[in-house]
């Protein structure tokens, strides 16, 4: 089974492309953001503290996110939910998280980096904010999220340069997916 990390700035299209990857290849999709939002919605004490961090645009402690991802992967393996592997969306967000993931969960086979200009990210997120009602989709938080992403992602991409494939995610959904399949097809061959 393969493990693919999908990284890119907030609003770069990770979720949209992950849906297509799952449909075509049968990966089990784990979105760190969705896991965190599920935990918040559960009303647990852990969820309440996560809500406070997320509304400020701050990073959630690595051990909490890793636990949530590992729990979900273990559950999917038990239920035999995939024969292909795992698509980890929006995680890791920084080098330390990546190294811990490989130590505590499993090695990564491929990293898809959806590369989008900051202005495009901001425009897409403001458009999403108009319909999503997500607490973290406001202009000030968006600016902070993009800044943090750019700083942290550079270290990750540099460290894993032999496993990172940069996807130009400025085009249409179909154009972007065509680039993705050119990378995943040989990985699974």
Question: Summed up, what is this model?
Answer:
This protein is α/β, with parallel strands linked by helices and 189 residues long. It contains eight helices and five strands.
Key phrases:
189 residues; alpha/beta; five-stranded parallel beta sheet; 8 helices
How are the SSEs ordered, and which strands pair?
Elements: E1 2-8, H1 14-25, E2 28-31, H2 32-41, H3 45-55, H4 62-78, E3 85-89, H5 95-104, E4 110-115, H6 118-132, H7 139-159, E5 164-168, H8 173-188
Parallel strand pairs: 1-3, 1-4, 2-3, 4-5
Structural overview:
With 189 residues, this protein is of the alpha/beta class. It is 59% helix and 14% strand. It has eight helices and five strands. The chain has a five-stranded parallel sheet with strand order 2-3-1-4-5, with helices on both faces. α6 crosses α7 (139-159). It is globular. The mean pLDDT is 88.
**pLDDT under 50 segments (min length 5)?**
none
**Helix segment tally:** 8
**Average pLDDT figure:** 88
Strand order of the largest sheet: 2-3-1-4-5
The percentage of residues in β strands lies in 5-15%
Write down the overall geometry.
Answer: globular
Radius of gyration, in Å, reads 16 Å
In whole angstroms, how far apart are the ends?
12 Å
**Strand elements, count:** 5
Helix content: 55-70%
Helix vs. strand class: alpha/beta
């Amino acid at each position: 089974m393969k493990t693919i990390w999908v990284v890119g700035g907030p609003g770069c299209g990770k979720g949209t492309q992950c849906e297509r990857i799952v449909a075509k290849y049968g990966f089990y999709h784990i979105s760190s953001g969705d896991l965190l939002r599920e935990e918040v919605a559960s009303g647990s004490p852990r969820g309440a503290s996560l809500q406070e961090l997320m509304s400020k645009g701050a990073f959630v402690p690595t051990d909490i996110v890793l636990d949530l991802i590992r729990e979900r992967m273990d559950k999917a393996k038990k239920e035999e939910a995939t024969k292909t592997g795992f698509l980890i969306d929006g995680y890791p967000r920084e080098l330390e998280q990546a190294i811990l993931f490989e130590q505590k969960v499993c090695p990564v086979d491929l990293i898809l980096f959806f590369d989008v200009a900051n202005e495009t990210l901001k425009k897409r997120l403001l458009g999403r904010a108009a319909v999503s009602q997500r607490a973290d989709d406001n202009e000030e938080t968006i600016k902070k999220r993009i800044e943090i992403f750019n700083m942290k992602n550079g270290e990750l991409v540099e460290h894993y340069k032999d496993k990172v494939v940069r996807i130009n995610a400025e085009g249409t959904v179909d154009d972007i997916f065509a680039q993705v399949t050119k990378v995943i097809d040989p990985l699974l061959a």
